[in-house]
Design brief:
mainly alpha; two-stranded antiparallel sheet; 193 residues
Length: 193
């Protein structure tokens, strides 16, 4: 994980990075509103402060240190750069998102194979992304060994959580209960690894 090296410097350094990314997002969001609508100049400060002081930011990012925002910003930026035909940079950002969390790999086929007038295959995006992913995983494997793959092992062996769709399907209000009693445990469908 890229953030482990940052945490070795200082345990709060990743949280500072996440908070900084969120502040940049707030500023870009407020500026984008202004560019879309000239009457938004008056509400820009209000929107900025609503985003900045929302409980979501302070709890999820600053207190708990969740980095989903950083992964999301990398993926959105990668998709944006793909639309601007900046293929290598797009692949790089998707790969950096992958090195933080494995989920962004699902966007790679979407930005690699696109259809405008005809189907286009963007090799530069694919190759740059795969090279960065492979080299990042190799470096992680060298530094941390097989524990690099512990998140995949954990995700494939855990059951559904409290707010999971699969937990709802297993619960008392499940639509499956109308068809079959007792409701079967479908957790194995939640992690098809």
């Amino acid at each position: 994980n890229l953030l482990a090296l940052l945490a070795r410097l200082n345990p709060l350094a990743p949280k500072i990075l996440f908070s900084t990314a969120y502040l940049i997002y707030c500023i870009l969001f407020a500026n984008n509103l202004e560019n879309m609508n000239h009457s938004a100049k008056t509400i820009r400060p209000i929107k900025f402060y609503l985003f900045l002081f929302s409980p979501f930011f302070w709890l999820e990012i600053a207190f708990y240190g969740h980095f989903d925002l950083l992964v999301g910003l990398l993926v959105i930026s990668g998709i944006y750069l793909a639309q601007k035909k900046r293929e290598i940079q797009s692949g790089l950002l998707i790969a950096l998102g992958f090195l933080l969390k494995f989920l962004p790999i699902i966007f790679l086929p979407i930005i690699t194979v696109r259809r405008n007038q005809k189907i286009e295959f963007h090799w530069k995006t694919l190759v740059s992304s795969l090279l960065v992913m492979a080299s990042g995983m190799l470096i992680s494997l060298i530094i941390w060994g097989e524990s690099t793959f512990r998140p995949l092992q954990f995700a494939s062996s855990r059951g559904s959580s409290l707010i999971s769709f699969w937990r709802f399907i297993r619960g008392p209000y499940s639509p499956v209960a109308l068809i079959k009693q007792p409701v079967p445990d479908l957790d194995f469908l939640a992690t098809p690894l």
